[in-house]
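Deliverable D2.4 — example input (structure tokens):
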């Protein structure tokens, strides 16, 4: 099965990025072809609770194709990612969701996939109860 996982990955740091990479490697171990589409711009600094969004050490996990394509504030990049997904025709898309800030981008991509393809999409929700209080959360 050809799978594309959409979510943070190296060089971005954090638990969700590591989870995405680990899940993708596990799926590859099961015989699936997995690519990751990550973010080239994730958070404005005002929304990021830490010092840096990027890993300061290490290297990308061996054997994973990671492309940093999504700019969280650019609808043009959302459209380009949706078109790229439709062009590649994966058997499955997995979208990692963890905070409302990313809902417009992920919602746009999902709507385009639904309208212009029959690619199934799975939403994998992380941190349903957020670590920090933010607009749009409980």
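Example output (designed residues):
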């Amino acid at each position: 099965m050809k799978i594309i996982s959409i979510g943070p990955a190296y060089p971005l740091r954090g638990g969700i990025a590591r989870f995405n990479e680990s899940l993708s490697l596990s799926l590859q171990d099961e015989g699936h072809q997995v690519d990751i589409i990550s973010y080239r711009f994730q958070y404005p600094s005002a929304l990021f609770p830490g010092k840096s969004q990027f890993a300061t050490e290490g290297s990308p996990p061996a054997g994973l194709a990671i492309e940093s394509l999504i700019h969280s504030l650019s609808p043009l990049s959302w459209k380009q990612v949706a078109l790229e997904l439709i062009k590649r025709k994966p058997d499955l898309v997995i979208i990692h969701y963890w905070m409302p800030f990313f809902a417009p981008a992920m919602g746009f991509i999902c709507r385009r996939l639904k309208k212009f393809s029959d690619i199934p999409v799975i939403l994998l929700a992380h941190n349903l109860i957020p670590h920090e209080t933010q607009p749009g959360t409980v």
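Residues 92 and 119 are 6 Å apart (CA to CA).
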